Amino acid sequence: MAFTVTARSAAPDRVPARRRRHRPRPAGTAPGNRRFRADAEEAFGYERGLCNADARNWPDLRENATPGTPLDGGPSYTLQWCHGAPGMALSRLGTAELLGDPQIRSKAITALETTRDAASAELHTGNYSLCHGLAGNAEILIEGEPLLGGKADSLAHTIALAGIETYGHPGRSWPTGVPGGHTASLFLGLAGTAGFYLRLNNPAVPSVLLMRPGQFAAGP
């Protein structure tokens, strides 16, 4: 009964019109409340403290996270959009665009450089998924092109050509993010791989890894 009353009391037709009216949001805030920005900056500060300066990466804090976890019980350091430096680079790229924070921008560059080195090492060996494969890491390098000074876009095209040379032949299967299997899904499978090549061919196609509202807005 309490839930019913609460739900009804919050219904739009019972909220005064002056409260329902959309109001402009101050720059750099969420729903007009600066507390959200402060919370976000505190979260970035926490993650900044986790960054390993030697590995130039952030540890995967999940228990029994992935194969390759050190036998001494120490943290593992993955290099994927879903976990590790590539995803950290993307979150900091998007935030730096909004806030212009030099510390966030600096960590974005660190994460991008780590992603670049990992992508170079995985040529002809990694899968081509967006979630934890070469396609995802290459997309992140494209997004970080302005901070890496022209080398990232070239590497992304090298990754694309390596995929075509290795898997783009009759009878060959593109490796996906599903171990030992195949899927047509977006983040783990062939749809994401196709999206990566589509974006390389047409940069106007928005990224699904770093979603900017203006890029997905409906046209006239």
Characterization of this structure:
α4 packs parallel to α6 and α5 (102-121) packs antiparallel against α6. Helices cover 49% and strands 0% of the residues. The N and C termini lie far apart (45 Å). It has 220 residues and is mainly alpha-helical. It is built from 9 helices and no strands. It has helices at residues 2-9, 17-20, 34-50, 85-99, 102-121, 134-143, 145-148, 151-167, 190-201. Mean pLDDT is 80; it is low at 1-30.
The helix tally amounts to 9
Number of strands: 0
Helix content: 40-55%
Proportion of strand residues: under 5%
- Round the mean pLDDT to the nearest integer and report it: 80
Distance between the termini: 45 Å
Low-confidence parts: 1-30
Note the main attributes of this structure.
single chain, 220 residues, mainly alpha, 9 helices, 49% helix, disordered N terminus
Question: What's the short story on this structure?
Answer:
With 220 residues, the protein is mostly helical. The chain contains 9 helices and no strands.
How do the helices and strands line up, and which of them pair or pack?
Layout: H1 2-9, H2 17-20, H3 34-50, H4 85-99, H5 102-121, H6 134-143, H7 145-148, H8 151-167, H9 190-201
